[in-house]
Amino acid sequence: MSAASVEWGYDSHNGPETWPIQYPQAAGEKQSPIDIQPVNLKTLKMNKNLQWKYIPEQCEELFNTGTSWKVHVNGKGSELAGGPLEGTYVLEQFHCHWGEKDDEGSEHTIDGQRFAGEVRISKIPFYIILCYLLV
């Protein structure tokens, strides 16, 4: 099956397990999906606090795909900076996706376990992704 014939998604025929096959550029070590392994996590001590601003009036479009909702944002003024980040990140979009069962829906996993859904907040530049797994 070629990338041209199938759009990416979250089903068995087009889900995260198939992305590196359909899209070779998604085969890197720093690509979605990410399996978070708590035993490997490290605590960072920062001299500066993480700071964020959110302006709800900058939301431009909300749509439902049937397996997710997405909000596109004109991020002027909605920003994330400080903490371990270098520079300022501007909000571009946020979305939530879910599955039909409690053990599917999240793109990312913790110790290989999937969850019912996931909320993702995308910022630019460099697409820093903040994820909240929905239990």
UniProtKB/TrEMBL annotation:
Name a Pfam family for this protein: Carb_anhydrase
Q: Name one GO cellular component term.
A: cytoplasm
- Domain Alpha-carbonic anhydrase per the UniProt entry, residue ranges: 6-135
Q: Which cofactor does it need?
A: Zn(2+)
Domain of life of the native organism: Eukaryota
EC top class named in words: lyase
State the reactions this protein catalyses: hydrogencarbonate + H(+) = CO2 + H2O
Q: Which UniProt keywords apply?
A: Lyase, Metal-binding, Zinc
Please give the SUPFAM superfamilies that the UniProt record associates with this protein. Carbonic anhydrase
Q: Which InterPro entries match?
A: CA_dom, CA_dom_sf, Carbonic_anhydrase_a-class
Q: Which GO terms describe its molecular function?
A: carbonate dehydratase activity; zinc ion binding
* EC identifiers of the protein: 4.2.1.1
Family according to the record = Belongs to the alpha-carbonic anhydrase family.
Q: This chain belongs to which protein, by name? A: carbonic anhydrase
